[in-house]
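Problem 12. The chain below contains 218 residues. Write out its predicted structure in token notation.
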Amino acid sequence: MSSPQPAFLIDGRCKHKTSNALKITFMDGPDGPPLAEGEQGVNDGKGKKFATLLGFKNGGTGNHRLTLRDGSVINVATLDGKPSEFTRVDGTTVGTAVRGATSQVLGAGGNVVLTISGDPVEAKTPELFRLKLADASGAPVADIDIIRKASGWSLARSLVNLDMTLYWWDHAGQPLPIPLLGARIAAFRNFSDLERDLILAVCVDIVIGLRPYIAEMQ
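Solution.
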């Protein structure tokens, strides 16, 4: 079954900060401030931060941070062998990601908000991973392409037959010395605030935390 036509795109491009920590910047248009920014290990201890500075910790487990355009902050605790935890700065739970061959993202009350599975035709290519997101009813919410090589930006799903000028989405750029180059979210409808927060947190968990959300990522 083919996916519906995307309503809009969000691009999340990853790079190194001067501290050598990874940073992913999410843009929902060619102009204006970022929709959100994710940063590696902001809430980690001095030991982990020093290892990052020296280049020994290039993504992976840690206490990462997602800052949204409105100034709200979500802590992304990327854990090894355990569900990832997404919380507000006051400790309030936003959600939890239970990873597996198919992953579920749960809300604060333990209810399923999103189910994440691999694309049934082409979940993994040398350039990217393809993920499909559905809501609790099983309806498609978005596709996410996780970019593995710079050429993947040009291969990732783009807007078709929409009255928009977004030529900049497909600028491939140069290869970067980072594990994953970023994420492209093709949304099929407007997100609720909770869905938006969880989807962006999942992208941080994958691109910076290097957590597998489908079998093909193992």
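Discussion. The domain at 8-217 is CATH 2.40.160.200 (Porin). Students who got a different answer should revisit the alignment rule from Section 12.3.
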